[in-house]
Amino acid sequence: MGYAIAMEAAIQGAEVTLISGPTQLHINHPLITRIDVVSAQEMFEASMLHFPNCDAAILSAAVADFTPKIVADKKIKEKQSLTIELQPTPDIAQHIGAIKQPHQVVCGFALETHNAIEHAKAKLIKKNFDCIILNSLTDKGAGFGHDTNKISIIDTSGNCTHFELKKKTEVAKDIILTLATLLAQKHSI
Fold first, then answer.
1. For the chain, what are the domain ranges?
2. 2-61+89-188 maps to which CATH number?
3. Which residues have a Cβ under 8 Å from the Cβ of 19 and sit 6 or more positions away?
4. Range in 6-10, 23-27, 145-149, 163-167 with the lowest mean pLDDT
5. Has residue 107 got a pLDDT over 90?
6. In terms of DSSP bridges, do strands 56-59 and 105-111 run parallel, antiparallel, or are they unpaired?
């Protein structure tokens, strides 16, 4: 979904910085600069470096909430007993929302399994987003592993717009249109 959003933003004329975790996906557009990261910490650092110079951020990556406290530097043999101690990863969305300036727009994502709209609205407020894109996991053909998705977009006024299942490239157009509208509203104030 993130790659479709980046491409649509570039097609619409935006200069895009795409911070991407490991993937087999490729993207080629002169307005897109891709920054590859491997860990949640690297994604956090790249996001903190680039966000202050952006007009907007769309936070579509599903970053793990926890990471191993100690990373093995060699293969762990199968006969060894194994205990993995985890530590929280930096909350990229929380940090971005905390440093967001009045002229910037931040769109977050939520993937919920129950009480989806209620939980997405709470996340919208907690993370200081301008809107949140709620992904569906309950609809056939939506979410991960598909070329299609079904979303709802919730704004800070509590308005919730539901979209039908469609190709991710079309979903990206809906998201970029929402982002452009929010940016226009902020710049007209």
1. 2-61+89-188
2. 3.40.50.10300
3. 35, 37, 43, 46, 47, 50, 61
4. 145-149
5. yes
6. parallel
Question: Residue 153 class from Cβ within 10 Å (0-12 exposed, 13-18 middle, 19+ buried)?
Answer: buried
Backbone angles phi, psi at 129, to 5 degrees: -85, 160
Tally Cβ neighbours within 10 Å of residue 158.
Answer: 9
Task: State phi, psi for 74 to the nearest 5 degrees.
Answer: -150, 170
Q: Which residue has the tokens 């919208």?
A: 124
Cα–Cα distance measured from residue 86 to residue 44, given in angstroms and rounded to the nearest whole number: 17
Judged by DSSP in three states, 33 sits in strand
DSSP string across 34-86: EEE--SHHHHHHHHHHHGGG-SEEEE-----SEEESS--SSPPPTTS-----E
